[in-house]
Amino acid sequence: MSKQEIPVPEGWTGPAVKLSNGVRMPILGVGTSQVGGFSQDAVLFALRDCGVRLVDTSKYNGFEVQLAEAIRDSGVPRSYLWLTNKLWPLDYGYETAKTAFHKSCSQMGVEYLDLYMLHWPGSMQPGRSNRELRAEAWRALEELYEEGLCRSIGVSNFMIHHLDQLKEDCAIVPHLNQVEYHPFQQPNELIEYCRHEGIAFQGYCPLAKGQVLSSPTIIQVAQKYRRTPAQICIRWSVQNGAITIPKSTKKEHVAENFQVLDFQLDEEDMLVINKMHDGRHVSWDPGDVE
Ligand SMILES: NC(=O)c1ccc[n+]([C@@H]2O[C@H](COP(=O)([O-])OP(=O)(O)OC[C@H]3O[C@@H](n4cnc5c(N)ncnc54)[C@H](OP(=O)(O)O)[C@@H]3O)[C@@H](O)[C@H]2O)c1
């Protein structure tokens, strides 16, 4: 596959975010974390019945084979999909990264990935520095990208100091950084840094794993727009330009989560939600990772 051949996932009619290499990525997709469960049927429903084209997963999640089955059963052609996977830190290193990439592709039944990223800034390998192992793994990703095996390469959970170091050590600036992002967790300094460096911003846990859905502020905004709290949070994230990947095991929630591209939040309501940041993480906090 040449990078020029498929500039946009065919069949995606919603908004897309243009990465620094010109590739356009759907702004909304589905996640597949193991916390709270995984449903192959829900992913199948998203792909086949809701027009979802972006699926985010990782080796760590452990659902690559189930995803391959859902993709096959959906009948959606590979070129219509945006598939993201992540390299787990225990595979950081040059050769190990390449081996892990090929294994993940094989498990998912695909020949290329649309986005492949370093999952976490820590290397989890005693005796070697995080910085050194990140750079080694990143060089492997750069080669996979140059070979056309990934349409784009990125990082996840990287803070400004990790990105600064990678910039010094490597040739390609990550196309994207995927970080926890919801009304309670708004890393605005990092978002501004990414914007300045041409790194697209992707948010994970847009519903704060469900914690934000009972917030009186969100419920009040939801009532105003006659939408659900989940739709308000997903809309807020998308409207702020973040690529957003809510996860649900329930078909009715999957359908609901994708009905957010047909309305807009007023500026005053965006500002109200922008003020909800309290710094809490519902996933992991990479702030202290060297
Ligand atoms: N890069 C990373 O390190 C990292 C870390 C964490 C997550 N992620 C990615 O981000 C994705 C999303 O994060 P997440 O799954 O942790 O959390 P999330 O999307 O914020 O929340 C998922 C929770 O919200 C519930 N939910 C979903 N839609 C709902 C709706 N419409 N109404 C009510 N409840 C709803 C789900 O329950 P039901 O199943 O009952 O609907 C589930 O318990 C993950 O799946 C993963 O792909 C990446």
From TrEMBL:
The keyword Oxidoreductase applies. GO terms for molecular function: oxidoreductase activity. Substrate binds at H119. Residues 29-275 form the NADP-dependent oxidoreductase domain. Keywords: Oxidoreductase. Pfam families: Aldo_ket_red. The keyword Metal-binding does not apply. Belongs to the aldo/keto reductase family. This is NADP-dependent oxidoreductase domain-containing protein.
